[in-house]
Specification:
It is built from three helices and six strands, in the order E-H-E-E-E-E-H-E-H. A four-stranded antiparallel β-sheet has the order 2-5-1-6, with helices on one face. Strands 3-4 form a two-stranded antiparallel sheet. Helices cover 23% and strands 36% of the residues.
């Protein structure tokens, strides 16, 4: 089992979700986050002073998947989020040691669905 975390541009969410749906991946959590990477934020001019905006609006997508779905999920996220510009985001794949479905008490692969 793996836990996939992706940071993407907010305007790419619908495309990413569509690509995930095509791969039969429906269990997704999305959170608004702030962050910066190589873009180092956006500089703005305010009252003739250049001010560096250090954090940009991004979305964090979190998905728990069984091993068979790792590559399709990552591919779907990359295809949906990629614009070819700086700031497209990152995908992190982490080992997931245990899952428990609260409603039924199922654990492991069965709890993911």
């Amino acid at each position: 089992m793996k836990y996939i975390v992706a940071i993407i541009q907010p305007d790419r969410l619908d495309e990413v979700l569509d690509r995930l749906t095509e791969k039969d991946i429906h269990l997704v959590t999305v959170t608004n986050v702030l962050g910066r990477g190589r873009q180092k934020g956006i500089s703005e001019v305010y009252r003739s002073h250049k001010e560096a905006g250090s954090l940009l609006k991004k979305l964090k997508i979190e998905i728990a998947v069984n091993d068979d779905y790792v590559k399709p999920a990552v591919d779907a996220i990359v295809q949906g989020a990629r614009t070819g510009q700086i700031g497209d985001g990152k995908v992190f794949v982490l080992d997931l040691h245990e899952v428990l479905r609260i409603r039924t008490g199922e654990t492991g692969k069965n709890a993911i669905g």
